[in-house]
């Protein structure tokens, strides 16, 4: 089998971490008898430098034609002073919208080997395995009208029933493959949007009798994630609540360099680490490539159906951590040997 993979390396540590993921992907493809054909596209600062815009049309068209997209990160100080429309981050938001990726999946899995890396107590997080399903292209970040005249400013939180249904179904489908528990997070005590959200989740639940649905207000959810994260299996929530809660969930795990994500919809899916371009450590060979390698594993599992290959990668990462190899960000946690970005890629591939 052959698959077309689009690669967007981006800025800062983006190229360094994507290269390591490709190294691991090629190794596992060889072992599992399939071939990955890559095509590189520009986005972000590097696209601005080379083409004048943060999201060239060629990138959108090329990625849409591919089977899946692996993405590093974009952004950096060099482009921070550009007008909003021309900035790298605007390109990324537009890219997600063009790809129609309404579901952002962020697994937060605590590795036994790294229980000491979290700021929470080991007994609170041991064995924690949460999947945050965040709606990505609706809600208050996109709602119209929106304005700011210097005296008064407003945004609008809108969700249509079909938008809630499609993200809700994703969450229940995931729960079926996991611990069969969905916690829907909203603010139904004060928001109309959340009342529709809650009612719609209840309706979807009727089609999934094996799954237990609970509801939680977002303020309580923020507290519960830190108090007792193990109570959660799948969390489903809207754009702004999911943005905030998934960052909280990431700190349950420890290093931002460990967390992958998938953004999926009806077209091509995008796989990327949750962190940014880390300009402060770019070019030093110390970035942790594991979040990106994990994202590549999610790509194999969800977009290509190469489940065995995905599991091989996940097992390799666990074994490497068990053996005590650490990049610099995790050097303080039971490290036997501190390795570079490229060495980490080599060791996982081997
Ligand atoms: P960041 O996630 O790039 O970095 C935050 C901190 O975490 C830094 O100290 C960095 O060195 C560290 N870090 C991040 N990834 C790491 C890794 N793999 N290994 C080891 N350490 C790692 O967030 P920051 O500094 O707020 O933003 C930097 C740039 O990235 C900005 O231009 C921002 O707009 C952009 N950004 C891009 C995103 C994307 O492309 N999806 C997401 C978030 C930010
Ligand atoms: Mg965020």
UniProtKB/TrEMBL annotation:
Residues the entry annotates as binding NAD(+): 76-89, 276-288
Domain Isopropylmalate dehydrogenase-like per the UniProt entry, residue ranges: 4-348
Site (Important for catalysis): 141, 187
Cited InterPro entries: IsoCit/isopropylmalate_DH_CS (IPR019818), IsoPropMal-DH-like_dom (IPR024084), Isopropylmalate_DH (IPR004429)
Classification via PROSITE patterns: IDH_IMDH
Pathway(s) the chain acts in: Amino-acid biosynthesis; L-leucine biosynthesis; L-leucine from 3-methyl-2-oxobutanoate: step 3/4
Residues noted as binding Mg(2+) in the record, renumbered to the chain: 219, 243, 247
Positions of substrate binding: 96, 106, 134, 219
Superkingdom of the source species: Bacteria
Function comment: Catalyzes the oxidation of 3-carboxy-2-hydroxy-4-methylpentanoate (3-isopropylmalate) to 3-carboxy-4-methyl-2-oxopentanoate. The product decarboxylates to 4-methyl-2 oxopentanoate.
Protein name: 3-isopropylmalate dehydrogenase
């Amino acid at each position: 089998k052959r698959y077309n993979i689009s690669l967007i390396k981006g800025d800062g540590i983006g190229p360094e971490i994507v290269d390591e993921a490709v190294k691991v992907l090629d190794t596992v493809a060889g072992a599992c008898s399939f071939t990955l054909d890559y095509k590189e596209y520009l986005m972000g600062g590097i696209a601005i430098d080379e083409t004048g815009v943060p999201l060239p049309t060629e990138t959108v068209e090329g990625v849409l034609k591919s089977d899946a997209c692996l993405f590093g990160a974009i952004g950096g100080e060099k482009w921070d002073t550009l007008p909003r429309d021309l900035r790298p981050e605007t390109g990324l938001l537009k890219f997600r919208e063009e790809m129609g990726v309404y579901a952002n999946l962020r697994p937060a899995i605590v590795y036994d080997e790294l229980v000491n890396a979290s700021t929470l107590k080991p007994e609170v997080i041991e064995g924690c395995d949460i999947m945050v399903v965040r709606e990505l292209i609706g809600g208050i970040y996109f709602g119209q009208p929106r304005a700011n005249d210097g005296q008064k400013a407003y945004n609008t939180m809108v969700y249509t029933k079909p938008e809630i249904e499609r993200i809700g179904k994703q969450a229940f489908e995931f729960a079926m493959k996991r611990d069969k528990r969905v916690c829907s997070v909203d603010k139904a005590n004060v928001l109309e949007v959340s009342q529709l959200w809650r009612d719609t989740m209840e309706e979807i639940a009727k089609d999934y009798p094996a799954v237990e649905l609970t509801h939680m207000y977002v303020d309580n959810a923020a507290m519960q994630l830190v108090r007792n994260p193990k109570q959660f299996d799948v969390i489903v929530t809207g754009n702004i609540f999911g943005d905030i809660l998934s960052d909280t969930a990431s700190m349950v795990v420890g290093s931002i360099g460990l967390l992958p994500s998938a953004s999926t919809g009806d077209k091509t899916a995008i796989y990327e680490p949750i962190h940014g371009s880390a300009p402060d450590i770019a070019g030093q060979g110390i970035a942790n490539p594991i979040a990106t390698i994990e994202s590549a594993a999610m790509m194999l599992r969800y977009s290509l159906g190469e489940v065995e290959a995905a599991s091989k990668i996940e097992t390799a990462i666990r074994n490497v951590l068990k053996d005590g190899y650490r990049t610099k960000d995790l050097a303080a946690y039971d490290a036997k040997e501190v390795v570079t970005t490229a060495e980490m890629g080599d060791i996982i591939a081997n």
